[in-house]
Amino acid sequence: MIETAARQLAQLCQDLHQRGWVANHDGNVSVRLPEGGALASPTAVSKRDVRPEMLVTVDNEGKVVAGTRRVFSEISLHRAAWRARPEVRWVVHAHPPYATAWACCGEEFWASPFLAEAVVSLGDRIPLVPTAAPGAGTGALESALGFADAVLLGNHGVLTVGPDAETALLRMELVEHLARIAAIARPLGGPMPLPAEMVTTLLEARKKAGLGPGAAAPPGAAGPAPASTDVAAVVQEALRRLG
Length: 243
Known about the structure:
Blueprint: H1 2-18, E1 28-32, E2 38-40, E3 56-58, E4 64-66, H2 75-84, E5 90-94, H3 97-104, H4 116-122, E6 128-129, H5 139-145, E7 150-153, E8 157-162, H6 165-185, H7 196-208, H8 231-242
Helix pairs in contact: 2-5, 3-6, 4-7, 4-8, 7-8
């Protein structure tokens, strides 16, 4: 099982680099293990070059207990996610350009949702957590993750969580997609928000689909990803209920 998690983690790192969401040694990934602790990407290595044998194992305090390399300095962000969300297994931090641009401007772009599918996938908030110095407290992040699956880190990038590698990566992808749409729409007057009643119905559908905070964790931290929720079908049913 650990071997499977290691392969998935290394592949996720490479995907982040291939998509242009990290540069140099940026970004970090972790996956919690069923027996406790977590596997984590090593520091000072391009995500393009991460291989399973390079990963480190850390305990719940973020201290390396296995592996020959050092863990990244931002492990406190991942520990905050573990505390906030018992069901979360995967944590991804990256710098996708559009979403990071909003974070560096100190602005949220999803405070008024504008795409129905994304409400089901991500909820109605992608909160902005203010800039914090390295080693500072993570209370604001922990609080934000209590109700959100993706968070903008002020002057820092994006952090997403998920029960499996695919979900954590897809959430990062969707955050960047929405950020790009919001940026393109801004000179045109900004995207029109969805009606409040529709957002409420979509959030109810999201909860019934088992998505978001409080969703049950899949059996094991490193096994195959569970079948993906058909978000389009969930949205269609929610909109049908609105009449």
